Amino acid sequence: MTRGPMVLYLLLTLGVGAAIVWGMVDIQIVHGDEWRALGVRREAGLRSDPARRGNIYSSDGKILATTVTECDLYLDLHNRLEVDERGNVKYDKKGNPVESGPVVDSNFNLYLDTLCLMLADAMPGRTASYYRERIAVERAKERPRRCFLVQRDVPYSVWLQITRLPGWSRAVVRQVDGQSVVHQVRAHIYGNMAGNTIGFRNRKESGSYTGLEGYYDSILRGQDGLLNCRRLTKGIWLPDEPYARKEVAQRTDTTTIDTIVLQRRIDGSSIVSTIDTRYQDIAEASLRKALNMYGGTAGCAMLMEMSTGYMLACVNLAVDTAAHEYLEVRDRNIAVSDVYEPGSTFKTVILTAILGDPEVQIDTTMRLPARYKNFGGVNGEIKDDHGGWDSLTLKQVMEQSSNVGMSDLGWRYYNHRRDTLRHRVERMFPYGKINPDVNAPEYKTYVNDLHRSNRDFLNFCYGYSTRVSALQLLTFYNGLGAGGRMVKPLFCKAIIDKEGKTTEIKPVVLNANMCDKRAAALMHDMLEGVVENGTGNNIKNTTYGIAGKTGTAVHSYSNMRRYNASFAGFFPSENPRYTCLVMLENIPVYGRQAAVVFKTISDCVVAVDKGLSNGGVKSVWPRLEDDSAMTQQRPALTKGRERDIKALYKKLRLPYEETDSATTWVSYVAATDSTKGHYVPYKPISGRVPNCYGMTAKDAIALLHEEGYKVKVNGYGKVRSQSPQANQAANSGMTVVLELR
Q: Which of 136, 186, 328, 416 could form a disulfide with 195 if both were Cys (CB 3.0 to 4.6 A apart)?
């Protein structure tokens, strides 16, 4: 090699070496701090440690809402055969083609049905064939997707089982666009039940909620932790100092430095709602049944404990056009947010206000010459939907829900001082916002200007010309039943912190004396009369007594009459402990449907609340002086085994007159003017079909088998008919058909 090329080679080597040395100096010394800081930011940093949201419990100890883990199931369905340099398919030692991809065909075909069945069991409304077809079609494409969405919001336990299917682990995608497919969601354990009371997450503002979730958000949410963490592997970070609380300086630009405080995660506290799942379930079922039967756009049913204001049940059902059924529709809290003209249930408010006026006498009688009456040139006569009475007392006006009677009362005492009546009502009725402890809008309620026309004034006297919410009306009735003590409706009764300490939420009194006790007592008596003698008599004859008022507000759409049917009241009538209101919106038929729903709820409460037996419920058996009168009240079992009937009478502590000691079966003979009701021996006639009428299925089958007959039973209950008829001639071995009801 000549000298010239050698010199050139040496110079080139020295130049490259110098460049390398300079690069090292630049990286380690000149810009060393900058690169080291970048490395720290990539491998270490501040990470949030999300707090777990607290649970919402029912008052009977069940979980209504909690945080659960769900996953979006994505599959990588890409798969292809391996080929050599010549394009020929490769084979393994066993002669099987070599495949590459997340899941090979053998495992795919073997476990696809298992995967689809798991998904179908976990996701209501979807079948295994639906998932199989979707996955198989995608897999058969020339270029299957590497990130194919199969189903969102799959329970974590199911998702985990899918990842453990043989050969499927690599096919389940863990991250999409850098985000984990695993996420925490809020779940209502009882599905749609009490949905608006519990609350939903708002769509527009992802961090806010409605219902109890929204009102107690700061308590339920807790406090997220903030930790210094170091990357272990891709997507996995470990805290340097798990629970250190210290300030960390962080530069945000060239001139300022923000200070961040590291903090421990504090999980949210839990709350105990006032909702009782037993009452909520029966209220929802009975309200839905009424809406399905009569139609309508929506309805609500509420049950309140009188002394505390605790809402034991709050149902808000509206038509879900997608599901074609009545459900708790998101953001439709009918009880709190809907305002409407109440109709006759508001007559209780008007009459309570009038009875507090010293000028009004309780023995006032209204002359009602007809169902229609004209007042002072009013456009259109005031009318009653039924009646035709010559005169009515104040109690009868309330019992018969007379629009004419209420108008006559208002016209007689307040025509020239309408503002007086309005102010008395507004002082007594909670027209302002109640601000219940659920996140739901409360819209403006009002009374029309009563001086604008005579018609507006008279309408106000029987429940129109004013708009209120169902919750406001329930609050009033609750205060009336409590003798004038109005309490605030409460949906939460206690807060449970992380240490298990319970802080009870005390009742809040809105108005200690909303009306005088005399007016409350008089109205109590009138409302009992409504159920016993008036428009609410379709739910009378209860063992515990109901005091309440029916209401039907009429309105029209496109010349079609529609009605808001309601019933509000309290029970037991002698010593009230619960208040209930039921309202059906926009039903096409006029009637007393809401009262039936009310009674279904009250029957359930009385059956469950054992405390009502201590003086709150009227005795089933009247107090009678002599044993002969008591004998007439005993339960009459038409026919049965004597030993069973004797045991029942002994349990009830009632006297039983012995019959023939050798008798197996006895039959009841009703009382007459000269004899008591009593049992006599019953002996079937040989060769003739026994009379099984009134027997239980168990006793009837036993009797027929003893006589050698076969038996077929239809229905349940007691025997109401049989074929062949009783006492007909029949051969042994014949089949007797019993109809039970």
A: 328
